[in-house]
Write a structure and sequence with these properties.
It is built from three helices and two strands. By secondary structure, it is mostly helical. The protein folds into two domains: 38 residues, no CATH class; 46 residues. It has a two-stranded antiparallel ribbon. A hairpin with a 7-residue loop joins β1 and β2. The chain is elongated, with a radius of gyration of 20 Å. The two termini are 35 Å apart.
């Protein structure tokens, strides 16, 4: 992926029309931006429509998991995970 731009320009003689925006080294979230529809607010829209809802969903799942760990017998929880 690091040499994507160089390889693309060698092959197609022009830069790509889709650009990948990702969250970095942890490889968590990615979105593609279409170059011909890019506007000053495009990154803000991608952030608000894709990353923020996903973050809140993960945050909610983490809270539920924390409640399960705090309130449950760990041996019962281990048995439940083993079945899944």
């Amino acid at each position: 992926m690091k040499d994507f731009l160089t390889d693309h320009v060698k092959t197609y003689k022009s830069p790509p029309i889709y650009w990948l925006i990702d969250s970095g080294k942890i490889d968590g979230m990615k979105t593609l931006i279409y170059l011909h529809r890019y506007a000053p607010y495009t990154l803000g829209l991608a952030f608000n429509h894709h990353f923020v809802p996903l973050f809140y969903a993960w945050q909610g799942l983490a809270a539920i998991r924390a409640e399960e760990l705090d309130g449950a017998d760990l041996s019962a929880l281990a048995k439940k995970e083993k079945k899944a």
